[in-house]
Design goal:
By secondary structure, the chain is of the alpha+beta class. A 4-stranded mixed sheet has the order 3-2-1-4. The protein is 36% helix and 17% strand.
Length: 106
């Protein structure tokens, strides 16, 4: 244990981190800088809160926490982009191809 470790703010084990304005701001800026963006909502799990994946026309993507399905719907409406349930429709092929090209897992 380092000298200042006891002063670092640590999240309690078993407590999920909720979405913040930083998460939402990132999603808004990311979508504004790209075209053909679609949103894919991922359900809450035992490990993470609800997340949304934004996918651009070329397959580039980003993922952040969101305030539940309703929060994702509000964001999609604000950004005027289509929204899908990733558990039902899956992810677009272009996202998988982009990840493969960039060496990322998806």
């Amino acid at each position: 244990m380092g000298l200042f470790d006891r002063f670092r703010r640590k999240q309690r084990p078993g407590v999920l981190r909720a979405s913040t304005s930083t998460d939402t701001g990132h999603l808004e800026r990311w979508a504004a800088a790209r075209r053909g963006v679609e949103a894919y909502v991922e359900p809450k799990t035992t490990v993470t809160e609800t997340t949304v994946v934004l996918v651009a026309h070329d397959g580039e993507w980003t993922r952040r926490r969101i305030d539940g399905t309703e929060g994702a719907k509000r964001l999609a409406k604000k950004l005027e982009i289509p929204i899908y349930d990733a558990g039902i429709v899956g992810y677009p092929k272009r996202m998988r191809e982009y990840s493969r090209r960039k060496g990322q897992g998806a």
